[in-house]
Amino acid sequence: xLSPDRALSRALVRTVxxxxxxxxxxxxxxxxxxxxxxxxMAYAVRRGHRFAALAAALAMALVPALIxxxxxxxxxxxxxxxxxxxxxxxxxxxxxxxxxxxAALLLTPHTRRPWPLPAAAALTALxxxxxVLRGFHWPLDVLASLLMCTPLLxxxxxxxxxxxxxxxx
Length: 169
Description:
Layout: H1 2-12, H2 18-26, H3 30-46, H4 50-74, H5 91-107, H6 116-134, H7 139-168
Helix pairs in contact: 2-6, 3-4, 3-5, 4-5, 4-7, 5-6, 5-7
C-alpha cells in the first residue's frame, strides 16, 4: 500500500498553488474547527439535548487520544519532509471530520433541509484535499484518520437519536 501511496502523492503534490492548499488544510486546525463544534453544542444544549452535546464533546476529546499515540508509534515521515516524523494518521483530518460531522449531527434534527451533513462532508473533503495537495500528508494518512474517527461519530449519531427520543417522549 505504501508504494501506490507514494506514487499518488508524487502525482498530486503541488498541482494546486500552495496559497490555496494551505487555506484548505487550515480548515482542520483546532482554532477553526472547534468553534464550529462549540457553537453546535451550545445550540444543542439550548434545545435540551445535553446528552448529545456531551457525546460530541467526548468524541472530540478522544481524537488526540487515538491519533497522537499512533503518530508516535509509526513515526512516518512526511511527503515533503523525510527528516520529520509523526505524519500518520492525519490529526487535521481527524479534527475536521470529528468537529464538522459532530456539529452537523447536532444541527440536523433542527433543520428543514439536510444541509449540515453535506456541508460537514465538504469541509472535511476540502481539508483532506488541501493536506494531500500541499504535501503535508500522504493519502493514506488522511484515509486512516477518516476510518479511525468514524466509530466516534457513530457514537455521536446514537446519542443524538437517543436525545431526540427522550425529548419527544
